[in-house]
């Protein structure tokens, strides 16, 4: 595992509320902090789910490899997001740094023990699990029923809710990574983004076009609502 890590901090005590996790007792727990370089694995599919993670900076993707070698990305996690919370003892997917990324981690066993006597934490963990299931269901609908332009519109709206700062959506992931998330070819994603720009729905900043200005959210949402 150490070959994937660029830096490791000595565990320090923190309260769960510092991490944005609601509790009744606000217990002090020991947290480690690890930094991974771009494209390095944080944990693998079917590895023991001994830790729960929170993104401090950067971005993380979770994915499965299909039998033909293609990669299907299931979710992205950005600053403040918690991931790695499984309903079993093993991870169901692989988690990887999209860019140089720093994460905090806490032993899952510690959370389980605390939640046994802390109703607020238990409810929060349940909501997180339910939210992950809902996202998985929504993603299945996106892949199975929506056109390419609808998928791209849905992705931009999702990221807009989570990443937009000062009216600019700064994407940490490349178009190829977006294509793997949406189940599309790279060229199809590029054409869809160009089409949305021609319609005056969005604009690009910079040579990489990873900074997006949303000019007409209502019209963009109209594409996402199409069936």
Count the DSSP helices: 6
The number of E-state strands comes to 13
| Strand percent estimate | 25-35%
Q: What is the residue-mean pLDDT, rounded to a whole number? A: 87
Helix content: 25-40%
The class by helix and strand makeup works out as: alpha+beta
Measured between the Cα atoms of the first and last residue, the distance is 44 Å
User: Which shape, going by the Cα principal axes?
Assistant: globular
Order of helices and strands: EEEEEEEEEEHHHEHHEEH
Largest sheet: 6 strands, antiparallel
List the uncertain runs: none
| Spatial extent as radius of gyration | 19 Å
Features:
six-stranded antiparallel beta sheet; alpha+beta; 227 residues; single chain; four-stranded antiparallel beta sheet
Structure description:
- With 227 residues, this protein is an alpha+beta fold.
- Helix content is 36%, strand content 29%.
- The chain has helices at 108-115, 119-145, 148-163, 175-182, 186-198, 217-225; strands at residues 5-8, 12-15, 28-36, 41-43, 51-57, 59-65, 71-78, 82-83, 94-97, 101-107, 168-170, 202-205, 211-214.
- Strands 1, 2, 3, 5, 8 and 10 form a six-stranded antiparallel beta sheet that branches.
- Strand 12 and strand 13 (211-214) form a beta hairpin.
- The longest helix is centred in the middle third of the chain and has 27 residues, at 119-145.
- The protein is globular, with a radius of gyration of 19 Å.
- It starts with a strand and ends with a helix.
- The relative contact order is 0.13.
């Amino acid at each position: 595992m150490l070959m994937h890590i660029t830096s490791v901090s000595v565990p320090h005590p923190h309260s769960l509320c510092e991490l944005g996790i609601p509790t009744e007792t606000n217990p002090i727990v020991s947290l480690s902090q690890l930094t991974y370089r771009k494209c390095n694995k944080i944990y693998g599919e079917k590895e023991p789910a001994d830790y729960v993670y929170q993104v401090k900076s950067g971005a993380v993707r979770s994915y499965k490899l299909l039998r033909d070698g293609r990669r299907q990305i299931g979710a992205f996690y950005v600053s403040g997001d918690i991931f790695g919370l499984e309903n079993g003892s093993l991870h169901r997917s692989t988690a990887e740094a999209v860019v140089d990324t720093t994460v905090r981690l806490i032993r899952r066993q510690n959370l389980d023990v605390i939640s046994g006597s802390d109703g607020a934490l238990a409810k929060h963990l349940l909501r997180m699990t339910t939210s992950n299931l809902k996202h998985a269901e929504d993603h299945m609908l996106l892949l199975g029923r929506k056109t390419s332009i609808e998928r791209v519109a849905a992705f931009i709206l999702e990221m807009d809710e989570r990443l937009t700062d000062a009216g600019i959506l700064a994407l940490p992931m490349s178009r190829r990574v977006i294509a793997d998330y949406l189940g599309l070819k790279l060229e199809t994603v590029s054409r869809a983004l160009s089409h949305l720009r021609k319609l005056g729905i969005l604009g690009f900043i910079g040579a990489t076009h990873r900074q997006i200005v949303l000019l007409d959210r209502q019209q963009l949402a109209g594409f996402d609502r199409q069936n």
